[in-house]
């Protein structure tokens, strides 16, 4: 996404408040949601991370992410000013099951969602996919290829996640701003396509 002082037609900003679009970033514990929001936000993102302590032992499943030292306990928040008339607000959801009750509040007003998946434990994204499908909220899948390492093919991932053919899937390292941009553009195109059908 490019940032601009005028809209694509070159018109000057008239001072009115920009239209706001709300996008959720969801997925399992430790898949890269906080990382994605931080990579694409044009402002320092709001993070509600806390250190994992012995109190979470037996509560939070850290299998596959044993080195993870912090966890989101409320949400992440970032902003992208597309142009003076359009701003995108990103809300990263907490991934642990004990915080899923917050998703019902965070989803209000969301235009769409990005679900981050980790090929080492794809099952951690099932709940997010089910959540958005049950509410009819369009979403895209972002497969976090840590350090550029891709363990499964797109076809294998689609089959494992039981995705409808029209759901976009983008693979890449979520630490890279360009990958986050591609994910958000894929979501925008998906939303436009969905609205043109209805």
TrEMBL record:
Q: Which InterPro entries match?
A: Gliding_Motility_GTPase, Gpn, P-loop_NTPase
Presence of keyword Acetylation: no
Q: Which Gene3D superfamilies match?
A: P-loop containing nucleotide triphosphate hydrolases
| Source species of the chain | Streptomyces doebereineriae
Q: Which UniProt keywords apply?
A: GTP-binding, Hydrolase, Nucleotide-binding
- In its UniProt entry, what is this protein called? ATP/GTP-binding protein
Instruction: Please state which protein family the record places this protein in.
Output: Belongs to the GPN-loop GTPase family.
Q: Which domain of life is it from?
A: Bacteria
């Amino acid at each position: 996404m490019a940032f601009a002082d005028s809209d694509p037609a070159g018109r000057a900003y008239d001072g009115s408040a920009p239209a706001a679009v709300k996008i959720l970033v969801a997925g399992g514990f430790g898949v890269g949601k906080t990382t994605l929001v931080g990579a694409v936000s044009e402002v320092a993102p709001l993070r509600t991370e806390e250190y994992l302590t012995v109190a979470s032992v037996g509560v939070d499943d850290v299998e596959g992410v044993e080195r993870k030292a912090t966890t989101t306990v409320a949400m992440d928040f970032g902003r992208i000013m597309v142009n003076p008339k359009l701003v995108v607000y990103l809300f990263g959801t907490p991934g642990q099951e004990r915080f899923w009750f917050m998703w019902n509040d965070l989803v209000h007003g969301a235009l769409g969602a990005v679900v981050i998946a980790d090929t080492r434990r794809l099952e951690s994204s099932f709940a997010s996919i089910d959540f958005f499908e049950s509410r009819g909220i369009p979403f895209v899948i972002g497969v976090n290829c840590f350090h550029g390492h891709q363990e499964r093919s797109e076809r294998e991932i689609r089959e494992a996640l039981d995705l409808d053919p029209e759901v976009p899937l983008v693979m890449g390292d979520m630490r890279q701003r360009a990958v986050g941009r591609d994910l958000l553009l894929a979501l925008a195109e998906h939303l436009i396509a969905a609205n043109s059908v209805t």
